[in-house]
Amino acid sequence: MDDLQRMRKVWEFIFGQSVADDADFFTDLDGDSMAAAALVHHVAEEFGVSLPLFEVFDRPTPAELLAAVREQLSVG
Fold first, then answer.
1. Helix, strand, coil percent content, the chain, rounded in steps of 5
2. Is 70 exceeded by the pLDDT of residue 58?
3. Which residues contact 49 (CB under 8 A, 6 or more apart)?
4. DSSP secondary structure string, 8-23?
5. How much is the pLDDT for 33?
6. What pLDDT sits at residue 76?
7. What InterPro entries is this protein classified in (predicted)?
8. How far apart are the first and last CA of the chain?
9. At 32, which CATH number?
């Protein structure tokens, strides 16, 4: 399973539905602050990276959020 599939898996767990790589936006999936907090938590568990909550809103697709994860991994 590649990183994008792993990220989609996290989103699908949070939203309880199939999620596309870059077509499904956080807000289109009825994402709110509680969903954002859950997403950040599960991303940290899956990738070992702690993202600030605002990243979910600034990068509202699985592919974009994965880019934030990769940036954190390259810094850390």
1. 65, 0, 35
2. yes
3. 43, 69, 72, 73, 76
4. HHHHHHHHSS---SSS
5. 95
6. 61
7. ACP-like_sf (IPR036736), PKS_PP-bd (IPR020806), PP-bd_ACP (IPR009081)
8. 23
9. 1.10.1200.10
Per-residue pLDDT tens over the stretch 3-57 = 999 999 999 999 999 998 677 899 889 999 999 999 999 999 999 999 999 999 9
Residue for token pair 């390259």:
74
How far apart CA 38 and CA 76 sit, in angstroms, is 22
In the structure encoding, which two tokens stand for residue 4, read together? 């994008």
Report helix, strand or coil for 40: helix
Residue type, 3: D
Nearest to 39 by CA among 59, 18, 61, 10: 10
Number of domains in the chain: 1
